[in-house]
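hey m, so remember when u said the C-alpha cells were messed up on ur end? i reran from scratch. heres the input so u can diff it against urs
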Amino acid sequence: MSGASEKPGVLNGFEETVKDFWVSRPRRPHAGRKLAGVAAAIGYRYGIDPVVVRVALVVTTVFGGFGVPFYLLGWLFLPGESDEVSGFESLIGRGRSSVSPAFAVVLMVLTVVSAGGSITGSWFDGGGLISCALIAAALYLLHRARGHENRPAPVAARTSYPAFTGNGAFTMTDTAEAPSPARGWDPLAADPAGWDLPDAPPPPEPQPTPPPRASHHHGVQRGPRSKVGSATFALAVVTAGAGVLAGLNGATWFDAQHIVGLVLGVVGIGLVAGAFARGGRGLIGLAIPLAIVGLVLTTAPFKDFDVRGGLGDLKPTPHSPAELQAVYQHAAGDIRLDLTELPEGAPYATAVSNGAGDTTVIVPSNADVTFDCHTGAGETSCFGRSSDGVGEPALVGTDNGPDGPGGQKITLKVSNNVGNVEVRRD
C-alpha cells in the first residue's frame, strides 16, 4: 500500500506532504517579481498576497536573520516559470535552468554564510532557529491546507533530434519539438502518412479563477472579515506592555530591543495566521516600522537602551551619605545631580544611567574626582575634556581640581544612551 490518501487534495503524514511539496514546488514567475520571484512564487502557489510573504521575510530577517538564507534557498531550489529544473539541479546535470552553474555556486556560498550568521550572530537570542522553525512550519501547514490548489504544470524536457543540413550531413539540434515530416526532402524516402508518431500531450486544463469578492458598494454583501488582524494587534500591545512592566520591575532581559523583538514575533505569527484566514493585511503597516526600529536598535551604539527608572526630569541633591544613592537610573528626561551639599568625609561613589535626555553632574570645587563619562549619541564634556558624535569612546580619568590632590574623593560613572553629558565643578 502506498499510504496515499483516498480523498483528492488530502495528504497523509509528514513524509507524503514533504514529497508532494518537492514535486509541486512553486515556480518563480517572470511577472510580479521584485528580485528573484521567490515571494511571488510562494504567494501565487498558495493563494497569498506576495506582499504578505515579503513582509514575513522581512520580519524573520529582523527577528532572527533567517529570512535572507531562506530567500537564497528559494532562488537556488525553486525553478523558474519556464525552466526544466532548479538552479541546483541544473548544477548537477538534471536539466536546464535560467540560473547558470556559476551563479548557482555563488548562491550556495551566500546561503551558507548567511545561515551561519543568522544562527550565531542574531541580536535576539535563539532568533535564527526560531525564525527557521516558523518558516518551515508555515510552509508545511500551507502545503497541507492548499497544496492541491494552483499546482504548477511541469515543463517538458528539451530533446535532441537529428537535423539534415542540406549537404548530406546530419547534426544534433536541441529543440522542444520534433522536426516536421512534411518539411523539405525526406532522406529515408518514407511515406509520411506511414510514420507512427506519438500524439501530442493534451494541454493542461486551465485552473478556474475564483470570482472576485463583491463589496457593499456594489450592493452585494461582503464575506466575513477575518479577526486575525485585530487579535494580533491586541496581543502585540499586551506583549509590549508586559515587557515594559517587566523591565521597570528589574527584569534586565526586557530591554528595548528584546521588547521590539517580541512584538515583531507576535506580528509575524499573526501574518502567517492571516495567510491561512485570508486576512491580517493591516498588520503590514505595523510590521514595517517595527522592523525599522529593530534594525536601528540592533546597529546603533545605544542598543542597550534601558526602560527602567521612570520618565521626566530628575534633580536630586543629597545632603548626607545616606541620601546618596548608588545608582540614579532614568528612562527618559533630564537629570541634574548636585553633589556639592555632601559633607566631607569618607569617599563617595555613585553612578548615573539615563536612557534619553541630558545629564549634568555638579561636584565640589576641590574634590578629587575619578570619572567615566559616556553617551551613545550626543556631546560629552567632563572637566574640560569633550567629545561629540555617535559611538564616541568614553572619557575616563581623574581630575583633582585647582588645588591638586587632597580633596574629597568621589568616584563617578555617567552613562547616557541619547543626550548630552556634562560633569563640572560648582
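this time it looks ok to me. The chain has three domains: 13-146, 227-299, 327-425. if urs says something different then somethings off w ur setup not the seq
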